[in-house]
Write a structure and sequence with these properties.
Layout (H helix, E strand, L loop, with lengths): L5 E2 L14 E5 L4 H11 L3 E6 L13 E3 L5 E3 H6 L3 E5 L5 H10 L5 E4 L5 H4 L4 H7 L4 E6 L16 H7 L2 H5 L14 H24 L3 E6 H8 L1 H8 L13 E6 L4 E6 L2 H10 L14 H6 L1 H11 L5 H10 L3 E5 L2 H6 L1 H5 L3 E4 L9 E4 L10 E2 L11 H9 L3 H9 L5
Parallel strand pairs: 2-3, 2-7, 3-6, 7-8, 8-9
Antiparallel strand pairs: 1-15, 4-5, 10-11, 11-12, 13-14
Amino acid sequence: MKLGDIANEGASANGRPLDGVRVLALEQMQALPFATQLLARLGADVVKVEHPKGGDLGRGSQPAMTDPEGRNLGATFLRNNLNKRSITVDLKSDRGRQLVLDLAPKFDIVAENFKAGALGRMGLGYDDVAAAHPQVVYLSISGFGNTIASPYDSWPAYAGVAEAMSGLYEWKRPVGEPPVVSPVGALGDIGTALFGVVGVLAALRHRDQTGIGQHVDIAMFDSMVAFADVVTNFWSMGVRPEPGVGLPMILDGFEAGTGWFMIQVGREHEFGRLATLLGNPEWIEADRFATRAGWRANIDEIRAAVRSWARTMTNVEACHALAAAGVAAGPVLSAEQVIADEHVAARNMLVEIPHSDDGADPVIVPGNPIKLSQVADGGDSRMPWLGEHTVAVLTEELGLTAQQVDVLRGNGVVG
């Protein structure tokens, strides 16, 4: 899907579920920007507040392209800022702080992902904004939360920090090897963003019912503890595998003639299907495979049989055969395979953004995974240039004149 294309266009007349909801986002990098982009895709009007010098730190990430003025547009920024407007305000200046407090009552949601407590010290924390806008839904996303003291309050936190602390890395660490860090990209960012969106939508519903605003406080560490549910749950139930040993089941990668794929077998009837498909039905009655622990102990034998069976197939062909036999499997797709995948294309899960510089090929970012039958899909607008909407927002929302904005710019309050 190209930027601006719309699927299910017949539903366009129905609007979007968050039409009329307004978000003022003091954000950077990925966790909050992904959340507010998702809200924007559902119809919310998102105004992004950036620092006049450089803006969102994600703009400085690599790889990158450049905007029409030659400024960096990093990949992190490109992935997370469609459908937004950008204004630049120096939050550390008294006048900049007051601009945000003046803007806040014009918005349903004020959202921030600064280090815990940072905005409070700047006079823009929940209490400060709620004093100006009592009905505000104020979303905070941080490493360890804002509302309850944590022994980690002083720690900087990227996605990998929260992922590591959740137990996931140790759970999957190969024997005698260091943990694999960030094995699935920014799980800590995206996962936390999703809880942030759920919290905001719940708080908006609550405000509709009661008229009361509130602070939605989302910690990345909390979010990853929830994602890593099996780590603590299984431990409490006595299932405590050594690192690298794995659970008593088949949950492994296997090699085909071309590419890799994974198989998940956790039930006895599934094992019987796999054994039969591989041409080894005698395994079903064999003592060494009588228990799930036996599958694990003899995984090398199973791996060799799968490799022999799949040696003339591609990874996708092997998974088609396994699925037909009732065995869960998935190909380990490369980036090129994901981009070319028929399912991904049919579901509009990739959006092509034209290069803003001399690059020939489009930049590809994920589409919206939330598909609503009565809402048009797509129609994304490009990411904003730094401060592109500063004049428009300050004049339209606060009634400032262009000359007053020029004075603010001359004083470094806005960019």
